[in-house]
Design a protein that fits this description.
The chain is α+β, with helices and mostly antiparallel strands and about 120 residues long. It has one domain (about 1-120). The protein contains two helices and five strands, in the order H-E-E-E-E-H-E. Strands 1, 2, 3, 4 and 5 form a five-stranded mixed beta sheet that branches. A hairpin with a 2-residue loop joins strand 3 (about 55-75) and strand 4 (about 75-90). The longest helix has 13 residues, at about 95-105. The chain is elongated, with a radius of gyration of 17 Å.
Length: about 120
């Protein structure tokens, strides 16, 4: 499904922008949970939480998005960003390994593109 989505998105890039840079964005996202009967839950550090504890009972998802050029104006290029895949983090594989697999799924489709990978620290 990721490959088909990326294929469709590449097809909607206007002809005059086909040589412009495409961005892949990888990030991890916390989803708070209340209870204990769900896969992959744990107490994770949350650097933005301000409730007396920096830990949150949650799931963590590793997410991949693509940002494609859709138009050009006097202000520069306009990009649209679309999520294309995610995977639940369960501590059996590192987040970097999960991110690598998500990227590998679509990389061949982008072989003729100038790509920049964006991620947080």
């Amino acid at each position: 499904m990721m490959k088909r989505t990326v294929s469709l998105l590449l097809d909607i890039i206007p002809e005059e922008l086909r040589d412009e840079k495409v961005f892949l964005i990888i990030d991890d996202t916390l989803q708070e949970k209340f209870g204990n009967k769900f896969a992959g839950h744990n107490n994770f550090f949350d650097h933005v939480r301000r409730n007396g504890s920096n830990y949150l009972k949650c799931n963590t998802f590793v997410c991949l998005s693509i940002s494609i050029p859709i138009s050009q104006s006097e202000d520069g290029l306009e990009y649209k960003t679309i999520p294309i895949g995610f995977k639940l983090y369960k501590k059996d594989k590192s987040k970097l390994t999960i991110a690598q697999k998500l990227i590998d799924n679509v990389l061949r489709l982008l072989s003729d593109k100038d790509i920049t990978l964006i991620c947080d620290a």
